[in-house]
Amino acid sequence: MSSILIIQTGSPPADLRMQWGEQGDWFCSALTGLGLAVSVVRPHLGEALPEPAEVRGAAITGSWSMVTDREDWSERTAEWIRSAMAEDLPLFGVCYGHQLMAHALGGRVDYHPGGPEVGQLPVTLSAAGRADAALAGVPQQFDVFLTHEQSVLDLPAGAEVLAGSAHDPHQILRYGRNALSVQFHPEFFPDLMRSCIERRRSSFEAKGADVAALLAAVSETPVSRQMLRELCAAAAGRV
């Protein structure tokens, strides 16, 4: 049995992939030293998702795809999420995974009317987030890495908001006892975040963004990285 299943939702653009590898690599690197048996499945390449009972928990990665495209592999993964929720499997969605979980469970995902949210930015815990046992020890406000165009616009029934940002009020969602998702990227590291900004420099500058300021703001995001590690370790029964 795999301790943690990484569900990789697509591949990065070729330039990022050549420099930094695949999303699954970033998650595996973030979980180094925890002693977890980690496996990666790539449904976008036709790889079959295991039965939820065959893993202890799953993390669903970000993607350069859009949930609203309703690609076949994505919809199959959404069905798997519904099955995993029925089994009370620990789930942790990230960016696309966050949106896909909301979509799978009846929420609405679409392009954010305020445009993309990119860079190192603060998120703030809600009252529910401050009271949530999974976020014990997390400061009320902390920096995260963000790069997304779509958002969870309407919550699934029963979902609870644990944190938000000035741009997007749905930064951390709880869907049940063992299911959380985040819009930000706890698996990112500073050089990867800078690469994501730099490769879109011309687009940002055309919209009046201060790219130099975006790049200068990038440092470390230890709170979100530790959140990823602790949630995966807990799912695997290591804490």
TrEMBL record:
Keywords (alphabetical) are: Glutamine amidotransferase
Extract the Pfam families matched here: GATase
The Glutamine amidotransferase domain is annotated at: 34-192
- Cross-referenced SUPFAM superfamilies, in alphabetical order? Class I glutamine amidotransferase-like
What PANTHER family does UniProt report for this protein, alphabetically?
Answer: GLUTAMINE AMIDOTRANSFERASE YLR126C-RELATED
Q: What is this protein called?
A: Glutamine amidotransferase
Naturally occurring in which organism (per UniProt): Pannonibacter anstelovis
